[in-house]
Amino acid sequence: MAREILTVVETVSNEKGVPREAIFEALEQALVAATKKKFYEGTNSEEAQLRVEIDRKTGEYSTFRQWEVVADEDHEMPACQDAISDVDPAQWSIGDIRELEVPSIDFGRIAAQIAKQVIVQKIREAERALIADAYESKVGELIYGEVKKQTKDGFIIDLGDNAEAYLAREEMIAKEILRPKQRVNAILFNVNREGRGAQLQLSRAKPEMLIALMKKEIPEISEEIIEIKAAARQPGVRAKIAVKTNDHRIDPVGACIGMRGTRIQAVQQELNGERIDVVVWSDDPAQYIASALEPADVSGIVIDEEERTADIIFATSDQLARAIGSQGQNVRLASELTGYKLNMMLEDEYHARQQNEAQQYLDLFVSRLDIEEDLAMALVEMGFTSLEEIAYVPAETFDEIELDAEVVELLQSRAKEVTLADALQQQENIQDPSAELVAMEGMTQEIAYALAARGVITIDDLADQATDDIADIEGLGTEKAGQLIMKARESWFN
Asked: How far is C-alpha 484 from the chain's CA centre?
């Protein structure tokens, strides 16, 4: 039997290129499974834990039964556990594994069948591991392969050297048609080491595909003279890519487009005619956004860096329409490229909104602080938008409108009183969550009280919520919020 085992190991290792150690481990697992099947299946000791050890030189093997030493209160499986009180505490501690050699099974027909199954699985795992190791470093790179066959949801791409990749239909350019034997470029965006699903996953639709093609066609990018800062795509239709030069003598846009557009045309051709706008990147958000919205002319930009939003103002409706683009294409790509939410409006609309907001702040200050309209207007013109700002800014902030120190002190005192009164009123209006809501599976007291602050008092109240309504509560998130809502809705069906 020992010689037979060594023969199996050598043969499989040589034929499949799998390491001998992997074959030995597979055989050990097979012998464990076969031993369990023969001696323990259907008995009181069915849960027994076994270990088989094969001598790598001689092929001889031994079988050991194992028991884990556990605390008395955890002693639930006598077939594979020892209570600490039943063993010598001087010799054993909780967590130790006690072993006893038991008779070994012959490496016969049953063991050989199980071994074959385990070995085949190990070979597959080893082959997947080798491919994963070979391609892991190539994630984000352009991969060149041949279409092998079409599946229900995509295409198998032959990369050579027994490696295959998968190009899902959703990762292809719209209306793109591939045929068997056709050569195709794609970006490798993921290496799946799990046992299921495509191992090497390709994409022609991701922005990284555009970036990789630009690097290939434009030497200045690969030489890092020009740097790609961001890219956004509507695959097969339009794309925007932001570039920055590290050499002031070189025009980054001109270098990317090339003489008579030859460089950018080569990229467009690979992407089925996708129109590509090359944008100059800037560390000034306003300038960057204005460039991203080209060919439209922007009249003004108001940035809110904290909220990552920007109000974009246009002089004419023609420029506004140009900025939006066909079906909102231009503004959508510009927003994705810059990372800002872009609010588009005409100058008249912007001024009207400003006046409306100013009037709201003016009314607020006059009514809540009991001050003259002239003083309230001065506060609005200084940029104050809340009572809290007035209450807690340094007193010297008001030097701009030349107020007496006594007036400033009185003004801030009133603002603090009103702010405190509002906070107390809000606290009084908050109800406690119901006992059923607090006790609901998956609920914590902190989340329950946070929900109550938003008027969600009962389980039925929670069931009426949408995920987006509560996902921003600390400790929740989209997934958990959805789970709690679905749990609450169980009462509708019971």
From this structure: 22
CA atoms of 186 and 167, how far apart (whole Å): 8
The string of pLDDT tens digits covering residues 404-448 is: 788 888 888 888 888 887 777 666 666 778 888 888 888 888 888
Task: Say how far residue 248 (Cα) sits from the centre of its chain.
Answer: 36
Interatomic CA distance for residues 265 and 217, integer angstroms? 10
CA distance 60 to 53: 8
Q: Which domains does the chain have, with CATH numbers?
A: 2-130 (3.30.1480.10), 139-205 (2.40.50.140), 435-493 (1.10.150.20)
Q: Which two tokens stand for residue 84?
A: 């600490």
- Are 135 and 191 in contact by the 8 Å Cβ rule? The answer is yes
- Determine the residue type at 412: Q
How does DSSP classify residue 466? -
CB 203 within 8 A of CB 171: yes
Give Dmax over CA atoms of the chain in angstroms. 103
DSSP 237: T
What pLDDT digit, counting tens, does each position of 239-288 carry? 999 999 988 888 889 989 988 888 999 899 888 888 999 999 999 999 99
Alpha carbons 263 and 256: distance in angstroms, whole number:
6
DSSP state of 18: -
Measure the CA–CA gap between 23 and 485, rounded to whole angstroms. 49
**Tokens of residue 160, six digits:** 């050579």
Query: Does the pLDDT value for residue 111 go beyond 60?
Result: no
> Can you give the pTM of this predicted structure?
0.59
φ and ψ at residue 234, rounded to 5 degrees? -115, 95
